[in-house]
Amino acid sequence: MLTNDVIKFSHRNVFVLSTISAFSALGFIWPFFYTGKNVPHTQIFFWIATVITVFLVILEISQSKLDSKSVAILGVLSALIAALRPLGAGAIGIEPMWFLLILSARVFGPSFGFLLGLTSVFVSALLTGGLGPWLGYQIFAAAWIGLLAGALPWRTRLRGGKEIAMLMVFGVLASELFGILMDLQFWPWALGSQTQLSFQPGASQNLSNFFAFHFLTAMAWDLPRAVFTSALICIAGRPVLSALRRSYVRAAFLTPIEFNEHVTQQKEA
């Protein structure tokens, strides 16, 4: 698979980030294998993982493996997404941040998308006072969506409408994925222990209970989020992609030999 990833981590750091993601995933899926009596404090998974991730990014910058252009564009896009996020506050599923995260990750690649999702949600929480036990979940959900968007295939030589259609479908899937991940951090405490859909440690029906709870309660958020995100990609996708790709080409992120190959690829896309 060809990608245009402007941020190149070492193999060691890719392994560490993968391990961190796997560790954080335990904070989402623990209800399906946990058999203890007391509900664990899962936030520790995310705070440890977030601190290690931020430390790795600082280390990469200090060792000049992330050049100034990559850091600058990451900062600008993180600020834009953080500014877009409050625009949907209080509205059911109306969250304009996702379309810009998806399009940015599409242009700049999976590692960039991972960091962009992480930093933009964190900055938004600082600006809006959204710090709380849910923040770690939101950070990694957004980071994984950025990673997946950046990893969408390039070999297919998608052009124009086909690329937009692919991104619209991904926007729908990403909206549902975010809703599922957010419900995973909410469901074990939401219903107490006395309902048919409650979390019961060690119970074999926890998986079916969760998805019944999710589809009964979250569709009012997930469907508007999916429709709104895909509609923004349909309406603004082409001009935003063009602007981002012009920035990519003019900034000359990659080395000359690699850059020429990716410029051609970006122009063809």
Helix content: over 70%
> What is the residue-mean pLDDT, rounded to a whole number?
80
Order of SSEs = HHHHHHHHHH
Number of domains: 1
Any idea what the shape is?
globular
- Main beta-sheet strand count, sense and barrel state: none
Distance between the termini: 15 Å
- Poorly predicted runs are 255-263
CATH architecture: Orthogonal Bundle
CATH topology descriptor: Arp2/3 complex 21 kDa subunit ARPC3
Task: Describe this protein's structure.
The chain has 269 residues and is mainly α. 71% of the residues lie in helices and 0% in strands. The chain has 10 helices and no strands. The chain has helices at residues 11-29, 43-62, 68-84, 97-108, 110-128, 135-150, 160-190, 206-217, 219-251, 256-268. The longest helix has 33 residues, at 219-251. Keywords: Membrane, Transmembrane, Transmembrane helix.
Blueprint (SSEs and pairs):
Blueprint: H1 11-29, H2 43-62, H3 68-84, H4 97-108, H5 110-128, H6 135-150, H7 160-190, H8 206-217, H9 219-251, H10 256-268
Keywords: Membrane, Transmembrane, Transmembrane helix
Pfam families: ECF_trnsprt (PF12822)
InterPro entries: ECF_substrate-spec_UCP037395, ECF_trnsprt_substrate-spec
Summarize the model shown.
InterPro entries: ECF_substrate-spec_UCP037395, ECF_trnsprt_substrate-spec. Keywords: Membrane, Transmembrane, Transmembrane helix. With 269 residues, this protein is mainly α.
